[in-house]
Amino acid sequence: MTRMVAKAYRMADALRAAGVMVVMGGPHVTEVPDEALGRDGGPRHADAIALGEADETWALIVADAARGELKDIYIPENDEKAARANRVCSLIHQFPGRLSSSINSISYPKPRVRCWAAHAAAGIRFI
Questions:
Q1: Quick one: which of 40, 53, 70, 97 is 20 to 30 A from 60 by CA?
Q2: Bridge-partner residues for 73, per DSSP?
Q3: What are the structural domain ranges in the chain?
Q4: Are 36 and 11 in contact (CB under 8 A)?
Q5: Rounded Cα gap, residues 61 and 79, in angstroms
Q6: Contacts of 6 (CB under 8 A, 6+ apart)
């Protein structure tokens, strides 16, 4: 989905092999979280992932890691925009090509790209 994900996964794999705990986030991981966690049949690249904006969850991630109690997935609880966009993404993935919303009527090649559009419409920027 994103151009540099293969390189990011190689780097994460090397760090994990050296015993370094890896937390991944960003647009790709938010869009396909199962891939980074190895739940899609591929290798696991991260010990944990942060979905959406990690500003709210980063302190919790660090505290959990320090205690050795890292969870697989961290999701911001109070990010209304991300929650709304994630609900739209969930529907898009459940019913690709069947939604009649304006976001789905845009001719994108894959449902994932429509999810990015849903996030952009909700005012979420990925940097």
A1: 40
A2: 49
A3: 5-74, 80-121
A4: no
A5: 16
A6: none
